[in-house]
Amino acid sequence: MERKEQYSRRSFLKISGLLTAFAAVPVSVKAFYQDVKQFLVPKKNVSRITLSVNKTSHTLYVDTRTTVLDFVREQLNLTGSKKGCDHGQCGACTIHIDGERALGCLTLASMAQGKEITTIEGLAKKGELHPMQKAFIECDGFQCGYCTPGQIMSAVACVKEGHTNSVEEIKEYMSGNLCRCGAYNGIVQSIQKVAAR
Amino acid sequence: MRPFNIEKIDSISDISKIKSVNKQVIAGGTNLVDLMKKNVAQPETLIDITSALSKKVNLRGNLLNIDAMASNSQVASDKDVIEKFPLISKAILAGASPQIRNMASSAGNLLQRTRCPYFYDITTPCNKRKPDSGCSAIDGNNRMSAVAGYNDQCVAVHPSDFCVALAALDAQVSAITEDEKVLVIPFKDLHKLPENTPWLDNTLPKNAIITDIKVSSNAFARHSAYVKIRDRTSYAFALVSVAAALDIKGNTISEARLASGGVAHKPWRWYEAEKFLKGKSATEDVFEEAAKLATKDLKPLSENAYKIPMLQGAIVTALKDCVNL
């Protein structure tokens, strides 16, 4: 396909005009602009963070605001854990921290140092799916699949905690994971199936 | 979220060494990180105190001691708590989700901020978020707001379930101030009403740190219940909640405790109804009478009058649950 000319005469004039105008701005105005920018867009603080994710240690320099969810998704490309609400209301980011289920979106990466983090990518062993992953497939525990990694991480913990004695108990202990497709019946069945083993 | 520094300390006494005008401690982070994302909280320096405080739950003699860093799940599933202080376990399990209960610390639960929608919306006035900016809820969306103890400055309610149980059981909170003085605060005096300082939720001095919560042994273990009514069956804040605990000798109530969440700026005790119940027999009629007495002076706002019959029903249900009526 023929490529269109990227720079038109008009944009060349616009850019060179702007550059000339900017060069003419006195230094004091530039400094003022920097001050205003610093106020509006504060400079980020970067710190060295070491996290152990799925039994592999990663050391990176990241913004102190980075949550565990952002760390695994944006830095490690482990995009299984999902960002749903980013406010701790939907459970799509559920991970395990030292074997207990927790929310990746409300855990600052710097505060998870020295702890073992497990994401959905760490569940399968030697290429074999975790029994809960298999059960979700067998029982139709999802439709669109967006909440599924969080559901499965929560479900694994739910079985481990032993809160699977009745449908009501499973629902109560899975209430931190929302599914807008409404695959709840399949999710409960998946958990019952794994718990029965 | 505004950028911040984060420093981890190993001892509470290190807090005073951190020189920052705008410092804020963080433990579980389940409330604070959310508030920071919404720009409601904008600390310059976060102080990670998770290694500076202990996290044990133990019963020594007649005193249950819950350390500040004990997670909500840990307290709710502790054997002594379930056996001797079941009200605490029931209340905690009625709140949040398993994930949040795993992360949230006990002291943090006490210090969580209100969930009033205007407190979270930085585009609207809110005296709790920005002193003297006004209260948007009093004439706005106030269906979740207070029905007691409020004033024209703030109609927010305290969101905790754990605190309702602790209020009912007359817990005590220990804290350490910045100049290392130890404070022991009766639970009823920890949280405050809005008064003229609605931006303050509690009576703790600035930068004081809660170190533990103590609850004395009591005779309520056999007859206690927590009823929470919310917009959905699970994982929602209370519209109203009731913690009820009775000490029954024969068929006579020798002591009663009744507290509520979703009612006021602090966990609310129904002292008059408690006094009424004392010496009465545990029957439905008596419970209904107590519920009427408790709710007689409540003043609903424009959108929350429904809370009054709901509270009456919740009080009766909780009291009946105590004695399996």
Keywords summarizing the entry:
heterodimer, A: 197 residues, Ubiquitin-like (UB roll), DNA polymerase, domain 1, 2 domains, 5-stranded mixed beta sheet, 7 helices, 40% helix, 14% strand, elongated, B: 325 residues, alpha+beta, Uridine Diphospho-n-acetylenolpyruvylglucosamine Reductase, domain 2, Enolase-like, domain 1, 5-stranded antiparallel beta sheet, 4-stranded antiparallel beta sheet, 12 strands
Given the C-alpha coordinates, what overall shape of chain B results? Answer: globular
Beta-sheet strand percentage of chain B? 15-25%
Order of adjacent strands in the largest pleated sheet of chain B: 4-5-8-6-7
Sheet with most strands: strand arrangement of chain A: 2-1-5-3-4
- Taking the alpha carbons of the first and last residues of chain B, their distance comes to 51 Å
CATH topology of the largest domain in chain A: Ubiquitin-like (UB roll)
| β-strand number of chain B | 12
